[in-house]
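Re: weekly structure request thread

Next one in the queue (244 aa):
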Amino acid sequence: MAFRTALVVFAHPDDAEFGFGGTVARWARERMEVHYLCITDGSAGSNEPGTSREHMRPIRKQEQEAACEVLGVASCTYLDFIDGELEPTLEVRRAVTREVRRIRPDVLVGQDPSRLWNRSRDYVNHPDHKAAGMAVLSAVMPDAPTRVQFPELLDEGLEPFEVPALWLGAEDADTYVDITDTLDLKLKALACHDSQVRTLPYRDWVTRRAAELGGAAGMQYAEGFKTFSFGHRTEEADDTTEQA
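Done, posted below.
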């Protein structure tokens, strides 16, 4: 197996399941240790009249915990920045870097900050997603590996760490993960986010998208990533059509 540990960083509860759920399930099934880092509190996850942020926060966290249980995620840390107001500030970067240095993953997984909309132009990317992606890139360089960056983390015993590999969920992927055997778990995990998906035809959308990505890679169903290796690439990771 190419990787032993992964840290998956995302903006909102349900982002990881929509973007990477099949991959996470496959990695966990193959005994890889997968950790989650949710940056916001998910409190803007309802447009129903009378619903407050205070009402939504515990619901979103409970749903995320249930999804983690389905997928076999080892831990989920919540930074609780305000949903809808996320920016890649030094405070956010410090908080993400703290977890990167603590977990010290073989692969860091995140959202693509360059994505403005999807290929079919029926979706405009949420600014929180872009901010979360920028915080991940900043952790790779310069935040996690630089000793003088956030010296207060040294006082916490968190030494610098150079991320060996970075995977960003992307439409224009160069690496595909076969999720044919874990698509059912991805859909089951998404169903845990009932407050977000109960009125959406998400099963059809997710299945169709997985089939499109799979077709590009000669698989039935797949998830796609832009991948970066920083001098620690293994023989297994050189396969650009599949990586467990």
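The beta strands are 5-10, 33-40, 75-81, 107-111, 165-169, 175-178, 222-229. The longest strand covers residues 33-40.
Next request, please.
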